[in-house]
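Practice record 12: protein with tetrahydrodeoxyuridine.
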Amino acid sequence: MEKRTISCNIHIAKSLETLDSSDAQLVKAAREALSLSYSPYSNFKVGAAALLEDGTIVKGANQENAAYPMCICAERSVLSITSNSYMGKKVVVMAIVVHNPNQRITVPASPCGACRQVLSETEDRQKTPIRLLLTSDSDETWMIGSAKDLLPLSFNGDLLS
Ligand code: THU
């Protein structure tokens, strides 16, 4: 039997000072976006900021609902704002910050499966990768070159219709 291995590279910056200034600015924008979070049920706040190809920064956060499955993640909030208000503009980088006022989080959280799927299709649509910057209460930031790196063997619409 043939064996294939899929791997994912993560680059870790221990502090914001070791990031490019544009990446550090995007992480700050994602941290600001935490204030947009409506998360009374989980207390888990997720802020996201996307850098578009024209330099625009789009911010969004998770929006919860008492009917839990209706919750919208920060990443998909931002992608939805982008495709509705900045149609056709490519997302180059997305920074994602997590925070829980009840406990200090020191490791980054990475996007859930649903967000990985939507990020992956966004990459397919725009034909360029979306670089991810993941961080938490500490400034340690994980950089992943493409959202698809987090979703090997992703599903796509090639065989539909
Ligand atoms: N959440 C996100 O915003 N992004 C993710 O990728 C994972 C989870 C939100 C949804 C919900 O409001 C809270 O985090 C707890 O699941």
